[in-house]
Design a protein that fits this description.
Jelly Rolls; disordered C terminus; alpha+beta; binds fe (ii) ion; 8 helices; binds 2-oxoglutaric acid
């Protein structure tokens, strides 16, 4: 395994407080070294998507998804592109080009070396227009134990200008604390499943304001991609031109040998983890939830709690033997 002899195997190499030392052992060429330094310092890095077939794949995906999304592919002045379904989740299950982008071997290999564990894609999102989502971090949706073994890769499927509502992000925000339910005094277990980001919006906005942190926009060329770290604040800026499409594919990646769960609906200190049933989009196979090699199952946790409860009770009524 890549990481076993390290001092901090439970921290992604690229997010490590020992990053400068780790960098020497990450087997990166000079371009990849630049990517690692950018991702470490700013929480994002831009790459040219490493697939000679990318233009053809993009054309096919757009042509296949446009009718089901009720969108025309033209950016014509008279054709308004707002509202509508807005996204297709996990098209990798039925669309070979979406799956091939998610499972790109060069991207997986690069992420694996940046993080020190093997990466695998677990979710795709295809967006025909801007999401206009407020700034958020994905760490409340999908997190890992150990934390931060998650990242997103956002691929521009056309040239994107300011009017189309480009992806935006707050450079450096990945280094801020991961805002948790514990921090905001909220219980997560059993909460309304539609409220994933909303409980954290005020605090994220307050931290951005307190730092006076600038928001940058990704005015991408078709075929460029942006890798973001698990805790980077990002969102979709306002679509000021209603005739613009903003075709993109986001692939979210986890890394091997972790437990995968939704922090927004968990109370970690109480052992209540909303574990996810993760499938590797590269091969369609399920991935176990592991903690230091041990498989986590929600029901197993309850049994352990039950056993210790009865043990304590027996201990209380036990007769002294002498
Ligand atoms: O494309 C966007 O505007 C944001 C997408 C996003 O937040 C995500 O996929 O995690
Ligand atoms: Fe996101």
């Amino acid at each position: 395994m890549l990481y076993q002899s390290r001092l901090l195997p439970g921290v992604p190499l690229v997010e490590s407080p020992l990053f400068e030392n780790e960098l020497e052992h990450m087997e990166l060429d000079s371009t990849e070294r630049g990517i690692a330094i950018q991702l470490h310092g700013k929480g994002y890095a831009v790459i040219d998507f490493p697939d000679p077939e990318i233009d053809a794949r993009i054309d096919r995906i757009r042509n296949r998804l446009a009718p089901e999304l009720g969108i025309t592919n033209d950016n014509a002045p008279e054709s308004i592109k707002t509202g509508g379904k807005g996204r297709v989740q996990d098209a990798w299950k039925r669309d070979e080009d979406v799956r091939a982008i998610a499972a790109n071997a060069k991207v997986i290999d690069l992420l694996s070396r940046l993080y020190g564990r093997r990466a695998f894609p677990f979710q795709t999102l295809n967006f025909p227009i801007g999401t206009q989502q407020p700034p958020h971090t994905d760490a409340v949706h999908f997190s890992s134990i150990p934390e931060r073994f998650m990242c997103g890769v956002w691929l521009a499927m056309e040239d994107i200008d300011a009017g189309a509502g480009p992806l935006c992000y707050v450079p450096g925000s990945h280094k801020w604390p991961i805002v948790s339910n514990t921090m905001i005094g909220r219980r997560g277990w059993g909460q309304d499943p539609t409220l994933v980001q909303e409980p954290y919006h005020d605090v994220w906005n307050a931290i951005v304001a307190a730092h006076g942190a600038p928001i940058e926009h990704f005015l991408a060329r078709k075929g460029q991609a942006l890798i973001w770290a698990a805790n980077l604040l990002h969102g979709g800026s306002t679509q000021t031109d209603p005739t613009r499409t903003r075709w993109s594919q986001v692939t979210h990646y986890f890394f091997d040998d972790c437990a995968y769960y939704t922090p927004a609906f968990s109370d970690e200190p109480l052992g209540r983890l909303a574990l996810r049933k993760i499938v590797n989009a590269a091969d369609g196979l399920p991935r176990p939830n592991l903690y230091l090699g041990e498989t986590l199952k929600p029901s197993a946790r309850k049994k352990i709690m039950g056993r210790s409860f009865w043990k304590r009770l027996r201990g209380r009524f036990a007769q002294p033997t002498s």
